[in-house]
């Protein structure tokens, strides 16, 4: 799409932001795995990790997503932009779904309000990093500049 920035001057910063988000998720997940070792995978025991509710299931999901984000940041190019964008979408959907079932027995990932807020904030950060981190050809950059000037 011509309206999304290509070769944005701050794309290395957005790539680093995606990597730092992955580092946070991986660290949170590792701490969650340590805290929940020996518990059921989808236990609803109100365990707190960094002020957020997390069980072993969500901790493993966080570790996997964090490692994927870190690998994408290392690979770079458009891989990181794509992974960041879709991971952001996934975190937003996950946050909304868990917000809908938070006070029910369907809260399998043991989310709290703080976990929903952090999940949705990280989703917004990753979507921003994904939208501004795209690398393209000179023609794509020129088309983006033209579309930007027409607005």
Automatic annotation (TrEMBL):
- Record keywords, A-Z: Membrane, Transmembrane, Transmembrane helix
| Membrane spanning stretches | 12-34, 54-74, 86-102, 108-132
| Protein's recorded name | DUF4383 domain-containing protein
Give the organism the record lists.
Micromonospora polyrhachis
């Amino acid at each position: 799409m011509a309206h999304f920035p290509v070769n944005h001057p701050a794309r290395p910063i957005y790539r680093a932001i995606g990597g730092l988000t992955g580092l946070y998720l991986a660290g949170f997940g590792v701490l969650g795995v340590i805290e929940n070792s020996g518990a059921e995978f989808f236990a609803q025991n109100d365990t707190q990790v960094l002020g957020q509710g997390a069980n072993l299931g969500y901790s493993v999901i966080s570790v996997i997503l964090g490692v994927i984000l870190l690998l994408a940041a290392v690979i770079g190019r458009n891989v990181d932009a794509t992974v960041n964008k879709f991971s952001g979408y996934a975190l937003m959907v996950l946050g909304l779904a868990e917000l809908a079932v938070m006070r029910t027995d369907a809260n399998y990932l043991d989310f709290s309000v703080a976990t929903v807020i952090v999940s949705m904030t990280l989703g917004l950060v990753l979507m921003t990093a994904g939208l501004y981190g795209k690398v393209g050809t000179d023609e794509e950059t020129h088309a983006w500049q033209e579309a930007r000037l027409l607005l």
